[in-house]
Amino acid sequence: MSEVVGATHQFHDAEYAEDWSQRFTPTPERLHLFETILQQLQSAIPADGHVVELGIGPAYLAEYLLARLPSISYEGVDFSQPMLGQAASRLDRFAARLQLKQADLLLDRWSSDLSRPPAAIVSTWALHDLGGQAQTAQVYQACASALPRGGLLLNGDFVRPDGTLLPFEPGRFEVGRHLELLQRAGFSQVSSLGLWEKEIEAPTASHNYACLLAIA
Ligand SMILES: C[S@@+](CC[C@H](N)C(=O)[O-])C[C@H]1O[C@@H](n2cnc3c(N)ncnc32)[C@H](O)[C@@H]1O
User: Fold this and answer.
1) How far apart are CA 126 and CA 83, in angstroms?
2) pLDDT on residue 57
3) Residue 72: inside a domain, yes or no?
4) Which residues sit opposite 158 in a β-bridge?
């Protein structure tokens, strides 16, 4: 049997978290994902809206957005203290518009504990690490209940691409299934805005990430 496409992580370990962040500085393809998220925010949320990021990690997306949306406030959630430490350093110049919270997306009540009602919730490369479809669905439901009508969820995450025959770890599943789970969570409009670094035959754990848009 072929090897399962996926990765295991130790994000609570400071050395591992630092090494991960250095290995995964944004590539041009990933910057295109960030730009796609930015454009959605620019067109759909108030200039001074509140943006929440799930699994902020080293804050590459947060830095990109905070630099280009000068009036938003931002709240980053992660369960890893080492990652939150990296995010705090990277975002030092935005401290007046920033809150960082340590919480487990599955175990803690992060969605009812936000500092302001969010206009948008964003995430990249994080929700697949929750472990599977049921866990992703749980977070989609929490997002739907935290967002006001018209609020956006933008999830740029790893998926199992259509057409592959290979097994993927359970947190990486098809775009169509993501859209079903988002609809079931109560979002009124759901779509996929693109798929980056598509590789069906010989994918690594950093190929195949989509941008899923859901409007509450
Ligand atoms: C693969 S990293 C991606 C980091 C960042 N979003 C990026 O795109 O560079 C996944 C991040 O999600 C966080 N994470 C994973 N599972 C989590 C959970 N159950 N609760 C909160 N954060 C979690 C990890 O600590 C890590 O920072």
Assistant:
1) 12
2) 98
3) yes
4) 209
Mutate to test the pocket of ligand 1, among 25, 51, 83 (most ligand atoms within 8 A of CB): 83
Q: Specify the number of domains making up the chain.
A: 1
pLDDT of 1 above 50: no
In a domain, 98, yes or no: yes
73-78 and 50-54: which strand pairing? parallel
The pairing of strands 189-196 and 209-215 is: antiparallel
Range of the domain at 143: 26-215
Question: Whose CA is closest to 17, among 64, 59, 79, 80?
Answer: 80
Q: From the alpha carbon of 123, which atom of ligand 1 is closest?
A: 6
Residue written as token pair 């919730």: 121
CATH of the domain at 50: 3.40.50.150
CA angle 71, 72, 74 (to 5 degrees): 140
In a domain, 100, yes or no: yes
Distance 126 CA to ligand 1 centre (A): 4
What's the pLDDT tens digit per position in 91-105? 999 999 999 999 999
Specify the pLDDT at position 151. Answer: 98
Strands (E), the chain: 50-54, 73-78, 98-102, 120-124, 152-158, 189-196, 209-215
Query: Is residue 12 situated within a structural domain?
Result: no
Q: What is the mean pLDDT of residues 20-42?
A: 98
Whole-model pTM over 0.85: yes
Q: Which atom of ligand 1 is nearest to the CA of 26?
A: 9
Q: What's the 45 CA to ligand 1 centre distance in angstroms?
A: 24
